[in-house]
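Lab notebook: predicted structure, single chain.

Context: the supervisor wants predicted structures on file for every construct in the current expression panel, including those that have not yet been purified. This is the next one on the list. No modifications to the sequence; it matches the entry in the shared construct table.
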Amino acid sequence: MEQVTTFLKKVFDLTFILKWTENNLLQIITGLVVLFFYKKIASILLMVFDKILFSKMKDHGLRSFLKSFLKVFIHIVLIYIVIGLFGFNLTSVFAIIGAMSVVIGFAFKEIIQNIFGGIILLVFKPFRVGDVVQYNSYIGTVKKIEMFYTRIVNFQNEIVIVPNGLLINNEIKNITAQNRRRLDLIIAVSYKSDLALVKEILEQIVNDCEYVLRGKDDNYTIGLGELAASSINFVTNVYVLPENYLLAKFYILEQVKKRFDAAGISIPYNQLDVHIKER
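Prediction complete. Output recorded below exactly as produced.
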């Protein structure tokens, strides 16, 4: 604590500052030069180490995490060098950091949680780079697992940056973890519809859809699922490849509208009937 007090007194002593500047002028100039080219130096070092250490690494998630870790490490080393070049007593600086460790630990609690979250994601691999995942209302492709954050590109081509700590403490769906995905559709028809005809048309549509899988474990299901307030709801379940999910959905819904219209089957919609009573 005595070192901290002595250091702080010197910092606010104008005479000491002038004398220190005179004695360390060359070091200060060197430090300013390093500080001026700080970003360029960091980028070059990161590029060199990336080529040497990570260029042949096949796990893209681990590679992006280690690169972000290396980036932080390079910045810390450069800051350490600049502080030394300016002539500061590093022992005193570390003493101040040690004295403030409780405050620093509290302030950086979430950052530390994100670092360990990234490590957990890489070790247990609930998802990998390239997987399509759903987190809260976001659905997209995992692009990078970094030291603090995971970057997800959604279907609108927007980058969603999620802290790693949140990903390990909340529910996340890995949509492409399995080699197939079930598409569930609810098709509503009016109570006047011929149920047998509705089911027959739905079966024809499913059989005509090129995206529906035909394996022995890929049997589709079509059945009456609900007698709702204003409609009869048929449930249609089919299995598709994850990348064909939307294509299958678009095809089936489009064909339902076309073929139901041709067969005279009406699809109900919410409407308000007003009856005027004459007196």
